[in-house]
Design brief:
Number of strands: 5
Distance between the termini: 30 Å
Strand order of the largest sheet: 4-3-2-1-5
Oligomer: single chain
Radius of gyration: 20 Å
Largest sheet: 5 strands, antiparallel
Structural class: alpha+beta
Number of domains: 3
Shape: flat
């Protein structure tokens, strides 16, 4: 096997995936991949998920992104955002989410134009003229949508507070829906969490095809 072949195979195994979270090992900055160009010589786009004041994505060349993944300076990390069950939402929450979604649903589908500054400005000006909603609000909605994994439930009021974060010390009893008679159940411990992390690292972080749900 030639060096070229080995390098190609290594690159393919670490191709970035839309929705994936990548952490810079040096700075600790975590970004969500929003758009991966079919041609990695062109621009890809991602957004810092912890900078709530920045609602616009950053551009990164596909080749640079790929190189950083393969060199190890970027690493894939587990997405801790929780899925939200529709039947757990109040009518007021659904109404608020759907109102915002109707404002941005057409423009977020315009990829990659929506990620480019000039084109994005034009698109949002059109929405502002049509609906009367200020561009500043539209930008804020875009930021929430992108940071939340391009999921319209990210537009829910208090989305990041839904469910609460789990730590080992907070797990004192078996969580989730009541188990059926005769079925098994257990309290998850630190070893279980480590097993989950190892499985995601192996099947998800190092795969170019696997999604988190399939993992």
């Amino acid at each position: 096997m030639t060096d070229t072949t080995m390098n190609t195979e290594a690159s393919e195994s670490f191709t970035p995936v839309v929705g994936q979270l990548l952490r810079n090992r040096q700075s600790g900055r975590v970004c969500r991949v929003l758009y991966v160009s079919p041609n990695l010589q062109d621009s890809c786009w991602w957004i810092d998920i912890n900078d709530l004041k920045c609602n616009t994505p950053d551009r990164i060349r596909g080749e640079e992104l790929l190189s950083s993944l393969n060199s190890g300076s970027l690493e894939a990390v587990i997405d801790t955002e929780k899925s939200v069950r529709e039947d757990s939402l109040s009518e007021a929450m659904k109404k608020s989410r759907d109102r915002v979604w109707e404002l941005i649903r057409d423009v977020v589908a315009r990829e990659p134009e929506i990620y480019q500054r000039a084109e994005r400005t034009d698109l949002l000006k059109q929405v502002e003229a049509k609906t009367g909603v200020p561009k500043s609000d539209l930008y804020r909605y875009l930021g929430k949508y992108w940071r939340g994994g391009k999921d319209k439930n990210a537009l829910l009021p208090g989305y990041r507070n839904c469910g609460g974060h789990r730590t080992e010390n907070s797990v004192k009893k078996r969580l989730g829906r009541p188990k059926k008679p005769g079925s098994n159940g257990k309290i998850l411990n630190q070893k279980d969490f480590e097993n989950f992390t190892d499985a995601i690292d192996y099947h998800y972080s190092k795969s170019r095809n696997a999604t988190l749900s399939s993992t």
